[in-house]
Amino acid sequence: MTVGTYTPKPGAAPLPRMIGAQAALETRMLLRNGEQLLLTVVIPTLLLVLFSSVDIVDTGKGRAVDFLAPGILALAVMSTAFTGQAIATGFERRYGVLKRLASSPLPRWGLMAAKTASVLVTEILQVILLTVIAFALGWSPHGNPLAVLLLLILGTAAFSGLGLLMAGTLKAEATLAAANLVFLLLLVGGGVIVPLDKFGSAGAHILGLLPISALSDGLRDVLQHGAGMPWGDLGILAGWAVVGLAAAGRFFRWE
Amino acid sequence: MRSEPVVQVQALVKRYGTKTAVDGLDLAAQAGVTAVLGPNGAGKTTTVETCEGYRKPDSGTVRVLGLDPVRQSAELRPRIGVMLQSGGVYSGARADEMLRHVARLHAHPLDVDALIERLGLGSCGRTGYRRLSGGQQQRLALAMAVVGRPELVFLDEPTAGLDPQARRATWDLVGDLRADGVSVILTTHHMEEAEQLADDVAIIDGGRVIAQGSPEELCKGGAENTLRFTGRPGLDVASLLKALPADCTAAELTPGSYRVVGNVDPQLLATVTSWCAQHGVMPDRISVERHTLEDVFLELTGKELRS
């Protein structure tokens, strides 16, 4: 390098370029991480294929895949927006990545926008993959695509808020353990593969208030039963989204 | 060349719970290289991180390039480069990938390949960050601090744990930054590093600046320097003393072994040798012991171990 190489010429890149670069990097980190792929791709795919082809759980009348596909889509959203994002962000906080980026030209809201974009890109890939597999298993969905989209978006917002709240307040190791535990509990008790009525009517009512239950139930109402707008489930998801995002905004610590 | 300070800290106080980390610190750093020197727990990192906008002062004011690092952060961040003491990189990222990413956040970044070459990071290839050596991680953090072509770079213990070659590479880069007009604030507890690199040194202890000046100024202050020589026993010390400046002392410590204490500079050395020449004395084993920054540092901060 010659004299003048380092002569100051500071400046931030244009915002869309910064956010785009950040979202691309975050998505690459996620797709490169084996544990994350296990959670977001392998487990939902396996569950969908296994429970559709083998009669382990009584999924009620009709084909098993028609019951399972909406639940697995809900699980996919949870795995990326909640579990995956919580663990990744927890370790970014622990390794000083969030701290280092905080002194870069990228504003904090830009970092959050990039994280959201990265979650959405991953979810699109998941939905494409799982939809193709479900069709191969004989899935015949019904309903209003707009209602599905709205459910997925509100579900993403609700799970992101809760995931970031966890990542921004707990230690990275605690987040890792808790996020996986919550994933497992909600997988079983959130109407993903086991119908909620298996837990009795009182149990079903309480569990129905969980964001995963609202998402899987709403998706099932539309995709399996061809319902219109599932306002009740949308309302529950919106409530979780407001509480989760507000709490994350209030309590998130960057270091 | 002295104009507006690049960093101006006035009466800074920062507490963590009941512990006062910075206790009314004043610091003005001019353009060039400023070393912030101090024992562990002296308040160096807290001071620097307040300048970087990470911490909000409990009281006092901080201005960096004339800006408030907290309230005018958006304006300031593109103009500074930050090297944290550790971390700052995605554990799954490769060195070149992370550096290219930081470059993309800036409008006119340095040539990333040349910088990788320059800092010897080319051999990292496709290795993930977690598997880089400590020295490679440090150099990557340094590269990330300079790649955006900032006006001012903060380096928090940039050579801690580096081997001599890597330390030399870091020093060379700091020298080049300085030559190209980039200001540098670096914290260190290596006196040699401060002496080699800094135009200005601020010694911090107990959350305050206890001395500031160029390395030469700091070494000149404090205890006197010493010149020793041996010659035949019984030289006329009183006559030597008369030739020397008034504030010097001279003595024959053991027969034939002489010591002059005072402000040892080239002029003094010439005076002693010419006195020897006039008196037909061959000053064998003549040596000067100038105070190093380390002497000054230990004198000011005490010798007891810090946490």
UniProtKB/TrEMBL annotation, chain A:
Give start and end of each ABC transmembrane type-2 domain: 31-255
Query: Does the keyword section mention Metal-binding?
Result: no
- Extract the PROSITE patterns matched here: ABC_TM2 (PS51012)
Task: Tell me which GO cellular component terms the UniProt record holds.
Answer: ATP-binding cassette (ABC) transporter complex
Keywords, in A-Z order: Antibiotic resistance, Membrane, Transmembrane, Transmembrane helix
List where in the cell it is found: Membrane
Q: How does it sit in the membrane?
A: Multi-pass membrane protein
What are the BP-aspect GO terms? response to antibiotic
Listed transmembrane segments? 37-56, 68-91, 112-140, 146-167, 174-196, 231-252
Q: Name one GO molecular function term.
A: ABC-type transporter activity
State the source organism's domain of life: Bacteria
Please name the Pfam families in this protein's record.
Answer: ABC2_membrane_3
PANTHER family, from UniProt? NODULATION PROTEIN J (PTHR43229:SF2)
> Which protein is depicted?
ABC transporter
TrEMBL record, chain B:
Q: Give an example GO molecular function.
A: ATP hydrolysis activity
Alphabetized Pfam families for the sequence: ABC_tran
| An example Gene Ontology CC term for this record | plasma membrane
Q: Which UniProt keywords apply?
A: Antibiotic resistance, ATP-binding, Cell membrane, Membrane, Nucleotide-binding, Translocase, Transport
Tell me which InterPro entries the record gives: AAA+_ATPase, ABC_transporter-like_ATP-bd, ABC_transporter-like_CS, ABC_transporter_ATP-binding, P-loop_NTPase
**What Enzyme Commission number(s) appear in the record?**
7.6.2.2
Major subcellular site: membrane
Name where it's found: Cell membrane
Q: Which SUPFAM superfamilies match?
A: P-loop containing nucleoside triphosphate hydrolases (SSF52540)
Q: Is-annotated flag, keyword Signal?
A: no
UniProt similarity note: Belongs to the ABC transporter superfamily. Drug exporter-1 (DrugE1) (TC 3.A.1.105) family.
> Which protein are we looking at?
ABC-type xenobiotic transporter
